[in-house]
Amino acid sequence: MEIEIKCYCDDAEHIKHLLFEMDALFLDRRFERDAYFNHPSTNFADSDEALRLRAIGEKAIITYKGPKVSKISKARIEHETELKDYDSMNNILLSLGFTHSGIIEKERFVYSFNGMEICIDYVDGLGVFVEIEKRGELKDEIEQELFNTAEKLGLTKFERRSYLELKYFTTG
Q1: Which domains does the chain possess?
Q2: CA atoms of 162 and 138, how far apart (whole Å)
Q3: What is the pTM of this model?
Q4: Taking the CB of residue 40, how many other CB atoms lie within 10 A of it?
Q5: Distance between CA atoms of 137 and 154, rounded to whole angstroms?
Q6: Average pLDDT score over residue span 81-108
Q7: pLDDT tens-digit profile of 4-58?
Q8: What is the C-alpha to C-alpha distance for residues 7 and 108, in angstroms, rounded to an integer?
Q9: Which parts of the chain are beta strand (E)?
Q10: Pick the catalytic residue: 36, 86, 111, 163?
Q11: Distance in angstroms (rounded) separating the CA atoms of residues 63 and 145
């Protein structure tokens, strides 16, 4: 189970400074290109699921995300595996009738802190966000720990929609 919260971020450099002061471990800076797919007979926007093919440099990862199971976080079942060839997997999915539902590109700074992964995401066309995530069994204590960490970082505006939803399915 992936338990995650997403926060709007007005000052990424300040967040990086706070993470340093909290002794968070910097793990990686990377560029990610996420292609999202829709099933031939199921609209994932309606079922609150996601199928994502991610490129990180030469590496590719395919991920299935089930519907959210919490009212306050983005907790959901997640299955993923690494692939050898992004283009081949993309072509397999398209050949099976899946269709692209959007592309999200971001620069991501990844930190580790107290068993959580904290990412600062510069998302093309959307702005800057901080994601705080922990894996495990969904428990109130874990969700509270994520929100407490956000509070320590001065983050107060939360978003439950995915980057895909924000970029392609938000009206107004």
Answers
A1: 2-168 (2.40.320.10)
A2: 19
A3: 0.93
A4: 9
A5: 26
A6: 97
A7: 999 999 999 999 999 999 999 999 999 999 999 999 999 999 999 999 999 998 8
A8: 14
A9: 2-8, 25-38, 50-56, 59-65, 78-83, 99-113, 116-123, 127-135
A10: 36
A11: 25
Phi then psi for 159, rounded to 5 degrees?
Answer: -140, 125
Per-residue pLDDT at 171 exceeds 70: no
Residues 6+ away with beta carbon under 8 Å from 55: 32, 33, 34, 35, 86
What is the overall mean pLDDT for the chain?
A: 95
Token pair recorded at residue 77? 């079942």
With a CB cutoff of 8 Å and minimum separation 6, the contacts of 23 are 113
Q: Residue 166 phi/psi, 5° resolution? A: -65, -40
What are 137's two structure tokens?
A: 């069994």
Pairing of strands 127-135, 99-113: unpaired
| Polymer length of the chain | 172
Assess whether 36 carries a catalytic annotation. yes
Token pair of 112 as six digits: 């580790």
Average pLDDT over residues 47-72: 95
